[in-house]
Amino acid sequence: MMKMRTVEITVGALMIAGILSLLMLALQVSGLSNFFREEPGYKVKAEFSNIGSLKVRAKVSIGGVVVGRVTEIGLESDTFNAVVWMAIDPKRVNNLPIDTHASILTAGLLGDNYISLTPGFSETQFLKEGDIIPLGSTDSAVILEQLISKFLAGQASTNNKSDQPGGEHP
To answer: Which residues of the chain are modeled with pLDDT < 50?
Structure first.
């Protein structure tokens, strides 16, 4: 009877350890392990006309290397443009030129959105805490649904022209 109880306790402890291991793995993979910690680095703001499905904690990269995270997303009250605050890690990139260009890209065909920074050419002025990447230096997210609807609308107008009398005939 005592041996059976020891086996049950050991199996229970191993099950709890396995579940905790899976939970830690899931937190690491999802990027939520530092959820309550403030992102390190200097904060830079970028204005976009459309951010698509960009989310807080999305990566910010230069040439595919993660250099920061999105910390906050808002709406500019007077222009109604989307405003994205990013924390750039100074250990990764310290002197980012002030004429840096920001684009919202998609990881794969149906992946998450992220911000890709393309450094500018200024050798004297650099982005610092609180600086803004203006709307003219940003590329908004490409929305797959909008592309499909434009394509279908173009196809429909082409078909209508060829169906009308006097329209194009092969």
So the answer is: 169
